[in-house]
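Hi U.,

Before I forget, here's the chain from the pilot set. I'm dumping it here mostly so it's searchable later in email.
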Amino acid sequence: MMRMEVGSIVEIADLKSATHLNGSSGKLVRWLERDQRWAVELLALKKTVRVKPSNLVLLHGTKPTRTVLDELPTASDQVVRLRGLRGASHLNGTRGLTVKFDESAGRWAVRLDDTHQVVNCKPENVSLVSVLNRVLDGTPTEKNTRAALQFDVGRRVECINYYKLPQKFEHGTVAMTWVREKSWPDGLYAAYKVILDDGRHLYVRNNKKYIKESTAPPIDSTTYEVGDQVICQVPQSEFSEPGIVIRRNQDWLSRGVAPYLLKMNYGKHLNFWPTSQTMKFDDDKCEGVAVNVTDRLRFKVGERVECSDGVGFDPGTIVQLWYNDESQFEKNEVVPYQISLDDGTMIYAPEDTDNVIRKSDRSPPPCWICFDSESSTDNPIVRECACRGEDSGFVHVQCLIRLAKSKVPHLRSNPDVNPYKQCLTCHRSFAPFRLCHKALTKESYRLFGKEDHMENILAQASIDAMADLLKEEGFYEGAKLLLLDSLQRFRDIKREVEGLNTFMNDILTTILIKIAKIHAETRSLVHMKICLEECIELADEFNRSGFDIKCKGLVPAKYNLARYASYTGNDLNALKLLEQVIDTEKKEDPASDHHLNALQMCAALHFRLFESREKCIELLAEEYDLQKVIYGSNSYEVRLSKWQLEMLQRGDEPQVVVIENGDVWLGLKFADLQDIRYC
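Structure:
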């Protein structure tokens, strides 16, 4: 049984004279032996009172709950969330704006967002909406391009990096002013395009909340030549690291690339944006050390090579030069080669040396279409399907394209067997975003992308595939333009052709979800929200029409809108949307990722809003049972869920955390372990 001790968190109850303190939370400071009372520091009012033990209720032992860690309001016009109310528990989780603090009553007057009603709340029932949730984003809003701008192209500035949480100012350089992308709504501009010192591109509003003057020195793109040995402060290291310049781009700002490519002495290649403070000449450079001082590589795309696996050398084909993978590499790290081995494995070569990668003396297996074994940059031989066997499945990329074109007449009548997507031998899809998939996707779009969407089902499929490819390669604007054009075509068809209204909704929601995801990637969150709300409206109309099937866009739209709501501080609305997702998926698709993720997010939100351990355990237990069926009892996912449940059941206190990793997620973290369960 837990007992009261110094540091314990308590709640005051049943006071007869100072009734206004009932329900207040505090921390035990010391025991007053003479008075037989505890000195309690009130967390909300920041003062100490003396209270009998009989008037104290112990809260979770000595570990402070999230309740007492909430930030309290300090002034009028602050966004707050109501919590811990007993008499008006239906208001818990609602947001409002502080009006004033009544000193005599010891309460805040709060105007609620939804109803504009003013309610009076004790300080401990009011918490500031987390700074994490006062979100700035990249949605363009500027209309008056004649407005004066404070910063010219080339000026050093500090900007809010809205891709990271918590959002904070970072140094950058103005690359353009009054920028407009074709996909943006008519009349909207971004005042600035800024390149941060880590290479991130931002569209920035003409607003001091987003941009301010910087005292940081400018990016230095002229001092160093190729071959210069330098010492630089890289973000990944606490110490200055030596390296050598192997590429310089003096026009880096207009091209949006890094000023320098460095080969570090510890072996890695880094794109680098130096200032006079972060890179200097290396006065202690090692003379006589043989260093490759060029970014010119020995092999080209399509050339046959052999790569070391630590024991021997395996044959393969070069598929990409200066390859980057943010999920595996350090920030701004690149490697000379990505290679497709003959067994289908994709690997990379960190160095362009013979002990890592060398020219292959072995002839490649012959192409199964033309039987020729010559591999070139324009027409490499690769195997990117599920065919296996010593020589099976190897094919020229150009031979695949010619074969697919020869099947077009059959494809129009039977689109289920699509040579632009799958191997005609093993009937498995080509590995996504590799050479075959890229080449076939581009050719398919060239052939079908402009055709009538109603007469040829391949038209929209080719556009979707091309948009996915552009998105994967980082060309978000091109992907968005393709999808917006397709969206408008189907809107026109829906308006002009009677009897297709409801049927078109299913297609429109699918396209809107894709556009919303691109808006999320570029942090145009307002535009993302508009797409998702339209998607829900169309999906509801489709589902009311009486079709036996349900609109597949409804669940992802509600799920992503819930994430937006939580990200921007409206947790109560997020919870309502997630509960709708759970109710739908229980009936339609219990094993879906949306269902599992919604259960995890709901658990986190119930704990954050209502501190409901029981509800949190109930939801996570449901997720745990589903995962056992989907992944198996010994899977990593199941073991992690079981650990999380056990921590909650034995009384450990989690924190609700919001993290950013290319996207925004909500999860639970326990203080004594670093593992975080993300949905």
